Amino acid sequence: MKPLSGKVALVAGGTRGAGRGIAIELGAAGATVYVTGRTTRTRRSEYNRPETIEETAELVDLAGGTGIAVQVDHLDPVQVQALIARIEREQGQLDILVNDIWGGEYMVEWNVPVWEHSLENGLRMLHLAIDTHIITSHYSLPLLIRKPGGLVVEVTDGTKAYNETNYRLSLFYDLAKNSVIRMAKSLAHELAPTKGVPSLYRQAGYAQKSCWRNTA
Q1: Tens digits of per-residue pLDDT, 2-13?
Q2: What is the pLDDT of residue 209?
Q3: φ, ψ of residue 153 in degrees (nearest 5)
Q4: Which Gene3D superfamilies match (predicted)?
């Protein structure tokens, strides 16, 4: 039996990148994985990338798990609440939450001071990086903490040492990526009284990003 057989995971923001990779590995371990994002085969998000949640779900299946693609805008509390209600209805449990929602790289103006950076784009980045994770945690954790043995993972990028000692070339990007680390610590504090549900953050290091490839 695979180690995660019978377990249910939600990879929020699993369309591409680290989220897709995590979803596939969860599937390889035997989990049922709900893969969410805004881009489907019939509709792209504002990010306008070709990868889709259906592709990720199919890769989960190929890895040996069960992939379920659900289009969700994680800035919309109503959509997130409906997603969690569906997971509860279909599975009766949630064991793993991976918050990897982002999709804001295309709005970053590198090495541009805050007073010259587009305020609209900067605030949009913060909403995508922070609000989405909070909204998703708010609705998913009541289901996840019903039984012991769950796990919450917050995904950011850059190594721990680099993030602690370096500016990330944009005030908005710097805040977006470092806030996720703090969010994981805060969630760990709030989850401590529950039945063994740890919260941690996963730093993807310097994984090649689509926005960097596009500027090469």
Answers
A1: 999 999 999 999
A2: 43
A3: -125, 125
A4: NAD(P)-binding Rossmann-like Domain
pTM for the structure as a whole: 0.90
Q: Which long-range contacts (CB under 8 A, 24 or more apart) does 120-126 make?
A: 121/172, 122/170, 122/171, 122/172, 123/172, 125/172, 125/173, 125/176, 126/172, 126/175, 126/176, 126/179
Order of all β-strands in the sheet with 32-37: 66-71, 32-37, 8-12, 96-99, 151-156, 199-203
Nearest to 97 by CA among 46, 53, 33: 33
Distances (CA, A) of 52 to 16, 17, 76, 116: 7, 11, 19, 34
pLDDT single digits (tens) 91-140:
999 999 999 998 888 899 999 999 999 999 999 999 999 999 999 999 99
pLDDT at 200: 63
User: What is the length of the chain?
Assistant: 216
Residue 124 to residue 110: CA distance in whole angstroms: 16
3-state class of 206 per DSSP? Answer: coil
Question: Which stretches within the chain are classed as H helix?
Answer: 17-28, 53-63, 77-91, 119-126, 132-144, 160-165, 171-191, 210-214
> Which tokens is 96 given?
């793993």
